[in-house]
Amino acid sequence: MVKFNHNGKEYTLEFNRKTAFATERRGFRLDEINSKPLSNIPLLVWGAFQKNHRKVTDEETMKIFKSLNNRSELLNVLIEDYSATYTDLFGNEDSESGDGENLTNWEVR
Predict the structure, then answer these.
(1) 3-state helix, strand, coil in the chain (%, to 5)
(2) Within 10 A of 26 (CB to CB), how many other CB atoms are there?
(3) pTM (2 decimals)?
(4) What is the pLDDT of residues 57-71, one digit of tens each?
(5) Which one of 6, 19, 65, 90 is least enclosed by Cβ atoms within 10 Å?
């Protein structure tokens, strides 16, 4: 999660599974963040705004992003937060489900 004040307004950028899904539906691909940064970075930034600031336009998200210092470090934090949604979905697959209950074994017959 990233918090900052921009022009007198507080912002909190973060992902949950719903916003990560929406970001992917728009075309974001984490595996292409380095090879296609011009398309993927704006999508990642847009997605980070979606949980708490959905009414901020695409153009405004990039304007705010460009006004922030240490943007490469910020991108790393956003990538970590985005990636945490996978952990939220799968949890610790070997021992328990995300809600603390034991997992049910299954088999192929």
Answers:
(1) 50, 10, 40
(2) 14
(3) 0.82
(4) 999 999 999 999 999
(5) 90
> Is 38 in contact with 44 (CB distance < 8 Å)?
no
Residues 50 and 69: their CA atoms lie apart, in Å, by 21
- Cβ atoms within 10 Å of 40's Cβ, excluding its own: 20
Q: Which helix (H) or strand (E) holds 5?
A: strand 2-6
Query: How many residues in the chain?
Result: 109
CB proximity list for 94: less than 8 A, separation 6 or greater: none
> What CA dihedral angle connects 86, 91, 97 and 99, to 10 degrees?
-80
The amino acid present at 58, given as its one-letter code, is D
